[in-house]
Design brief:
The complex is a heterodimer. The radius of gyration of chain A is 23 Å and the shape is globular. Chain A has helices spanning 2-30, 32-54, 86-122, 124-138, 142-153, 157-183, 187-194, 199-235, 247-258, 264-291, 293-296. Chain A is an all-alpha fold. Chain A has one domain (28-50, 75-295): MetI-like fold. Mean pLDDT of chain A is 78; it is low at 1-15. Chain B has a domain at 95-145 and 207-336: Orthogonal Bundle (MetI-like fold), CATH 1.10.3720. In chain B, 75% of the residues lie in helices and 0% in strands. Chain B has 13 helices and no strands. Chain B has helices at 2-28, 34-39, 45-55, 61-73, 87-122, 127-141, 144-158, 183-189, 193-230, 233-240, 245-282, 288-297, 301-329. In chain B, helix 8 (183-189) crosses helix 9 and helix 12 packs across helix 13. Classes of the chains: A mainly alpha, B mainly alpha. Chains A and B meet through helix 4, helix 5, helix 6, helix 8 and helix 9 of A and helix 1, helix 6, helix 7, helix 9 and helix 11 of B.
């Protein structure tokens, strides 16, 4: 008797974590691309964590004797105009771009997601105020607004994060609002209300889980967009300042050399940027399959 | 319907007021002193002060704002500090270049993305689905400026098929007579095939860049919402009633899946207008985006304000159109007054 009592609490969580894991494995087997995305995500996270400790060269050290060298065994990705090792710079830049993306997405998910659901569900004044704010932001070409915000607040990484979050706010609001609005009078909401659930409980326990899949797609798209946004800002000369290694600014540094045939300066940071955004976007689809209740059964 | 549209039009006004306020505050908060910039590096303190007074920069912010709004009502966006030209003229002359580029990019990408998304959803889990995902995701993962540079490298440097990225026309072709400002249409109307070809060869790379960029969000949202709709009960009922696959997918499923797709279209447009700025920079396109970037980097705020306002008006109108489309596509979603 005492044995079963001591075993039971240990067995229960083990079983549940197993089922989550096996479900994730099942999803990945069903969809090999998702497996690839999770793998790439792990790689990016590792590079962001340990990148600066494993690179062969100092990313800031210039060596004009070695300037504009094509990729070789010594410099895998070649060297730029100042003879800096592009491979080291690309790897070290991972952390900065990764942090910008994660921070801005978390910020905007909290702000935009909840504002949008509340607007769609309550309607009336809540809707009007939230929509007005979103419309005002949305009425700007997003990238230019981000340019304006960074320029006005100052050229720091924090301001890039804030600008990116503000610029993405309407996207979250609109999707959450449209989804919540359609479900406002849905059968399951009315049933929940009839059973005595309050508005906030219905919002959080019934509507939020139902719109999570769509929000997940949104998160992954925004994650990618956040990196692109930051890179775009530094490409035009705002945002991160040289000589800080960052993918966008490195592409800009190599842009002039493209026409004369030195492709490697812009290509490798651009490719790194692309792979990172690619990973986040694929991850979104994978997460959607993972959280979608309709597919889970 | 007309009343609801009219009411919706009224709700546009507060948005525009918000936009004007935000634009005004943002550009006034830019670092750097416009008066000092305008006076030049060698100017004395008194000269800078004099310019500050003549530009009205010494007045308190609310007064500057009232002055700004008063000018706006007369269609006066002020003068650019760096070129001295009126911003309104500059924007009006540059707008068609940007519009032609953006529209061509969007049309190209719609024609590819929507069928792709439907196909991926209908054959979910098949190799088509996976290929579409990879292709479409790769499209949006490419930073626009990077895609542009790659295209330039391949088609200009390696293959030599396309002209150098130096704007709307090469040096040897003269611009067509100005009817719409869209070189493609103008040259077609006048039957000038040589100009049409020259225009197209300059336009195709930047337009393809924008197309590749906007492909993915449209395809993804089409796929996602088609999947949701295809899993719903009315589609199952339609199938069970013996309707053929084409009717079920196009008449039943697609029309219902359109709502999120139309939502996405509004966002895609906003992305496109932003991406346009970067593409214009890469291809030296003489549009309003590159105009705004130059001005912003010189803290020349009149062109930036003008640019942002023009975009805001265009974009608010687009949103209005999308809201009306909502009502047409899905009668459940009523326009709120």
């Amino acid at each position: 008797m005492t044995e079963t009592v001591t075993i039971a609490p240990v067995a229960a969580p083990k079983h549940s974590s197993n089922s989550v894991l096996s479900h994730a494995l099942y999803i990945m087997k069903d969809n090999p691309v998702t497996g690839l995305a999770f793998g790439l995500f792990a790689l990016i996270a590792l590079l962001a964590l340990f990148g600066p400790y494993i690179v062969p060269y100092d990313p800031l050290a210039s060596n004009t004797a070695q300037a504009l060298k094509a990729p070789s065994m010594a410099h895998w990705f070649g060297t730029d105009q100042l003879g800096r090792d592009i491979f080291s710079r690309v790897i070290v830049a991972t952390r900065l771009d990764f942090i910008i993306a994660i921070a801005s997405v978390i910020l905007v998910f909290i702000m935009g997601g909840f504002a949008g659901i509340a607007a769609g569900f309550f309607g009336g004044w809540t809707d009007r105020i939230v929509s007005r704010i979103a419309d005002t932001i949305m009425a700007f070409p997003l990238f230019v607004l981000a340019m304006g915000i960074v320029a006005a607040l100052g050229n720091t990484v924090t301001n890039i994060v804030i600008a990116t979050a503000i610029v993405n706010f309407p996207l979250y609001v609109r999707v959450a609002r449209a989804e919540a609005n359609v479900r406002r009078e849905a059968g399951f909401v009315q049933a929940a209300r009839l059973s005595g659930n309050g508005d906030y409980r219905i919002l959080l326990a019934h509507i939020l889980p139902n719109i999570m899949p769509i929000m997940m797609v949104q998160i992954s798209l925004t994650m990618g967009y956040a990196i692109l946004n930051a890179a775009g800002l530094s490409f035009i000369g705002l945002g991160v300042k040289p000589p800080t290694p960052e993918w966008g600014i490195m592409v800009a540094e190599g842009a002039a050399n493209i026409i004369s045939g030195e492709w490697w300066i812009a290509l490798f940071p651009g490719a790194a940027l692309m792979i990172a955004v690619f990973t986040f976007n694929l991850l979104g689809d994978g997460l959607r399959d993972l959280v979608d209740p309709q597919r889970r059964t | 319907m007309l009343t609801t549209i009219g009411k919706r039009l009224l709700t546009v006004l507060p948005t525009l007021i918000g936009v004007i306020i935000v634009t005004f505050l943002l550009t006034r908060a830019l670092p750097g002193d416009p008066a000092a910039y305008f006076a030049g590096p060698a100017a004395s303190k008194e000269a800078v002060e004099q310019i500050r007074v003549s530009l009205g920069l010494d007045k308190p912010l609310p007064e500057q704002f009232i002055r700004y709004v008063k000018d706006l009502t007369q269609g006066n966006l002020g003068n650019s500090l760096s070129t001295g030209r009126p911003v309104t003229t500059e924007i009006v002359s540059r707008l068609p270049a940007s519009a032609e580029l953006t529209l061509l990019g969007l049309i190209l990408s719609m024609m590819i993305a929507v069928p792709l998304g439907i196909l991926a959803a209908v054959k979910q889990g098949s190799w088509i689905d996976h290929t579409c995902r990879v292709v479409a995701t790769a499209g949006v993962s490419l930073p626009v400026f990077f895609t542009g540079l790659l295209l330039v490298y391949v088609f200009y440097y390696i293959l030599g098929w396309s002209p150098a990225p130096i704007g709307r026309l090469d040096a040897f072709t003269s611009a067509p007579p100005n009817y719409t400002g869209f070189y493609l249409i103008d040259s077609l109307v006048t039957g000038n095939w040589e100009t049409f070809r020259a225009t197209l060869s300059q336009l195709i790379l930047p337009a393809a860049t924008l197309c590749i960029f906007s492909l993915a969000p449209i395809a993804r949202m089409t796929r996602a919402s088609m999947l949701a709709v295809l899993a719903s009960e009315f589609v199952r009922t339609a199938r069970a009633s013996g309707l053929d696959g084409r009717t079920v997918i196009i008449t039943y499923a697609f029309r219902n899946a359109m709502l999120p797709v139309v939502t996405t279209l509004g966002m895609v447009f906003s992305f496109l207008l932003g991406a346009n700025v970067l593409v214009e920079k890469v291809f030296a396109w003489p549009g309003i985006g590159s105009y705004a970037v130059e001005a912003l980097l010189q803290s020349d705020f009149a062109p930036v304000q003008g640019f942002v306002l023009t975009m805001a008006v265009l974009y608010v109108l687009l949103n209005l159109l999308i809201d009306i489309l909502y009502g047409v596509i899905d009668p459940r979603v009523r326009l709120e007054g």
